[in-house]
Amino acid sequence: MHKINTLKNGLKVVLSPIKGTKSCTVLCLVGAGSRFETKDINGISHFLEHMFFKGGERYKNAAAVASAIDGIGGDFNAFTGKEYAGYFVKCASHQKETAFDVIGDMMLNATFLPEEIEKERGVILEEYNMYQDTPMYQVGWDFERLLFGDQPMGWDQIGTKEIIQSLTREQFQDYKNSLYTPDNAVISISGYFDEDEIMDLANKYFNFEDGKRGREFKPYQKTKSEKKVISQHKKTEQGHIIIGATGVPARSEDEYVEKILSVILGGNMSSRMFMNVREAKGLSYYIRTTTDDYTDIGSISTAAGVDLNRVDLAIEAIIEEYKKIMESPVSAEELTKAKEFMKGKIILRLEDSEEYAHLMGKQALLYPEINSVDEILKKIDEVNADDVQRLSKKLFVEENLRLAMIGPFEDDNHFAKLLHY
Catalytic residue at 49? Predict the structure, then answer.
């Protein structure tokens, strides 16, 4: 069971004990993802995440940060999404004070030295180049840009080369001061720990000054673009495609209906997409259907790496699976298998203190209340075949379908004509 305590400065501390482990994850989540950006600073959330590892007061540089965590055999990392950023250390429980010390120093005392900014600028430009050279990743960002349009929901988290090259120390400081505030952050602890000790450490190392978040993200605005295909012409040995549509937001009454729908379509190696598009027809290597759910919008899509000589057939085969699931209710056996698959994966993931801390911390940061694991499993069990068919008919309306492609493709209009039932 989880528990939420609140420090005097307003910072929430989420406690999620796990029996039978000697590890502990200390995770700091902050509402500072790319949705809080404007076009002139698109990419600053991700760049800032990198800069926190460059040193503060007690750990002066990246080497000192790394040495402290390596010295306790811990794992540490960070990530930036659209709605929040996260920083974590996972370690043996008796070493958790070092985890608090390192993350607290990063969050409160980051120096953003000009020379470190310049060095990291080069690192991030190389990360940008890596994604450009990895089409199975880049096509996902292209799909979101097509689906959500020219607004923060549709922008890449990494930004553009021009902005990466132009961001200044003052912009980093202003952005941090406006979002890294106690009312806009959560400390999530999971694993083996003593509650009183945790609260003492949180008060000691996360003594944020009182302050309120000074920057908001604008609600998602439905786009009016009729463009159905976005493509990058590249010489590749495999075509990378994503076909999908806007989905439901997190905490929608259909949140878990959509997740079950995606499992049935392409969530595992016995799913419809895998068996019918890959196994039966040999049209793709990887193929998977996934969902992304944000606070006010979501997406559902199928991504595949396909045979360049049979791209049309692959697109038509994916569309055919969307059509089938709209026309005929899933069987009781298929529905049960999807539910048990999803519940099993959740239970397996939550044996990891890092995963558990993330699940609970994200909910505490973004939503009015936390759903326990038992409540989540119950919501999955409540999904029925009528729900799956009803939602599929709502989501996969032909006019809503969008296609992103990377490969030696030139005629977008040709592929747009394939997006029909």
Answer: yes
Domain topology for 3-205: Cytochrome Bc1 Complex; Chain A, domain 1 (3.30.830)
**Domain residue extents for the chain:** 3-205, 229-416
Residue range 65-78, pLDDT digits in tens: 999 999 999 999 99
pTM here is 0.95
pLDDT tens, residue by residue, 30-44: 999 999 999 999 999
Structure tokens at 303: 């991504």
**How far apart are alpha carbons 112 and 322 in whole angstroms?**
49
Place of tokens 């996969």: 396
57: Cα separation from own chain's centroid:
30
Q: Listing from the earlier edge strand, what are the strands of the sheet with 12-17?
A: 3-6, 12-17, 185-191, 23-30, 85-92, 75-80
**Rounded CA separation 364/376 (Å):** 15
What six digits make up the tokens of 92? 């043996």
Q: What is the CA radius of gyration of the chain?
A: 22
Report the distance separating Cα 41 and Cα 50, nearest Å: 15
Pairing of strands 185-191, 12-17: parallel
How is residue 360 written in tokens? 């609970």
Contact indicator for 373, 345 with CB cutoff of 8 Å: no
Q: Which of 37, 49, 120, 255 is catalytic?
A: 49
